[in-house]
Amino acid sequence: MMIRLLKGLMLVVCVLAGILLVSNLGYAIDAVAHDRVQITIMPGAKAEEIVARYPGLTLIQKEPSIIVGYPEAEEQKYKQLLKMDRQIDLTVVVPAFPRIDWEQYGVVLKRSVEFYAKGELGEITFQTDIYPRNEPLERHLGDMVQRTFSYLIPAFVLAAVGGLLTVLLAVLLPRVGKVLDVLNRVLLSLPDFFLIVMIQYAAIVIDKQAGKPLIVAMQFGDQTPFLVPLLGIALLPGAILYGTLRLAFAREWQEAYVRTAYAKGLTRPMVVLSHLLRNTWEDLLAVLPRMVLVAVTSMVAAEVITWTFGLGGYAFADGVTSVSSLPVTCAILAVFTLVTNGLIALVRHRRAVAFKEGK
Description:
The protein is an alpha+beta fold.
């Protein structure tokens, strides 16, 4: 038990470290020239006169745009001088062939770790009528977690219960099962964002027909959508569970204990509920981790499409221009997925064998 716990903790640490490394990888790619800059001069000014004022500055290009050069080691010094020059209207970086700057990458990683150690989890930038406003993630994190899990967990439960009940209906009523099989294949062939958009469209149509807002389709102010992300998250995991258990029930129908049960006079519903259902619990537990992963990814898609200010979609919410806290929210979702899958694995290890019979 202790070894399994240590392995689980090591997995969590590795995933969190991977998120930190990957999320800051963009800072390691340097695609800017550090020995030159493009400038836009004021009317009446001459590039030659500007270059002559600063020793070490050279005129590299005059047409179609003015580019001046300087020693790379003194980049910050010359950039500051050019920005303060009254005859220069604008300075723009010059693109260069991308290269990996491991030193800069190390500096950024160290700075990120220091910020996290101080409890600084990043910022969210909101656009206002006057100027952008930066707010720390900690100010909104509690509401974001509560909002996201308010429909993520119910959606997962709905997927599990709905998928199980649907497959029981398909097994007990073979004709209905054929129709459900076709619908399930169609559902699995569609991307999650398409399903969410269709649910959202249906909500808008319902609101329009009713003449008043019955179902919130997108977040507006304090109005947060619930039914749209709930159904959007639950559909694909439920379809996955249905397909898995459908195959499991088909497998169990071939076992000898089913024929024995029929010989004893048991009806089809009694065989399904008393024997087949018990012997497919291991298949149910085996597919739950995949359902959790699909539910989380569908949640992100649902929040992005509905502009919901939650863990998965806050970067695309209305009024948000930029964020520097994605590693933290990704880490929260990753830990939730790993912990949930760990609990499922624990239950599967302890109870799955006890469910089996007739083997």
